[in-house]
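Late entry, nicotinamide-adenine-dinucleotide complex.
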Amino acid sequence: MKVAVPKETRPGELRVALVPQGVKALAKVGLKIVVETGAGAASGVSDNEYKEAGADVVGSTAEALTGAGIVLRVSPPSISDPDEVSAISRGTILVSFLNPLENQALIRRLSEARISSISMELVPRITRAQSMDALSSQATVAGYKAVLLAADHLPKFLPMFTTAAGTIRPAKVLILGAGVAGLQAIATARRLGAIVEAFDVRPAVKEQVESLGATFLETEADVTAEGEGGYAKELSEEQHKKELELIAGAVVDTDIVITTAQIPGRDAPLLITEEMVKSMRPGSVIVDLASESGGNCAVTKNGETVICEGIQVLGPANLPASIPVHASQMYSKNIVTLVAEFVGENGEVQLDFENDVIGPAMVTHDGQVRNERVRDALEGDAA
Ligand code: NAD
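Prediction complete; structure with ligand written out below:
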């Protein structure tokens, strides 16, 4: 079975789906890996390293894809100008981020092209599948990088300094949403010496926040919304009002706010109003990691930096791609573990829809949209 790793095409996508270590792991079960030349260049992997790991390196996407039974990507294939789906043969298994709840046109196209697509976003967050969880691995990268970005934009130090030229007070950082990205942001800001506060609507994370050396923002009001599978659900209007009051009280003397709050299948909740932004000290920085799903801050623009009365509001797009070496290494490990769910030890492919990872993560197969949530999203879109 031939496995293709084409060069990523999304502008700014510097990651690659498989690194040489992953090539070796897949070759072990008899898969034949074909990598497009230059696919790993932006992630620090040369064609030679791929060859040494046992892959064939070919000169074009078409050559990589021809005859492939499995295609591994990071970003979803484009369906317009050019239509990259048309280069993938019918019956091929495509493993990639697909953004399937939002990107209905792509899902229709994959279904129509009879491609069996597995969405990295839909790998269930169960203990057994932790090593396949690319949302977590890439959120780790984003949480870390968000703090570095903020530190770079802040016209201040983060740590405390006691020097002959005076004592500098440490910066104050507020992290909203303490999931995978938020916890990594807390850890990174603490390592840089900042004073860190955090808040999340899942009370279970209070202990994790505190164990990283941050303070969990407390309120008398009930601002908790624990959903299914460790995720949050939407707050009631009254609870949301209380949360905004809590945050408004905290941001006024905060130097950096990093927001990571998400609710699966919905727009990101609004946590910072324009008025709150304006209440912050000029020079302060907000990094909105939810910018791709609408943003947690009212003034965020996805992919842009907005200056609002001297406060810098960053809405970085595709942050994991900005640390491509380690983001790719982690993603590759996720992919290799996932592939082992449908490729046996002798390289034979078997798509078992009863498998508790493949079943939920399989979006399209044989002209059908298999995942119920994606089907609902498609029907909603059509209506
Ligand atoms: P996410 O990206 O969906 O959300 C980020 C955070 O935002 C979450 O912690 C959520 O509670 C929080 N949030 C939502 N609305 C909020 C609001 N109004 N105010 C403040 N915070 C708000 O979540 P994620 O980081 O991908 O994962 C969340 C959790 O899921 C993890 O911390 C973990 O408990 C669980 N998880 C489990 C596994 C596993 O067992 N394999 C893997 C990954 C995640």
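Residues 134-153 form the longest helix (20 residues). Will revisit in the morning.
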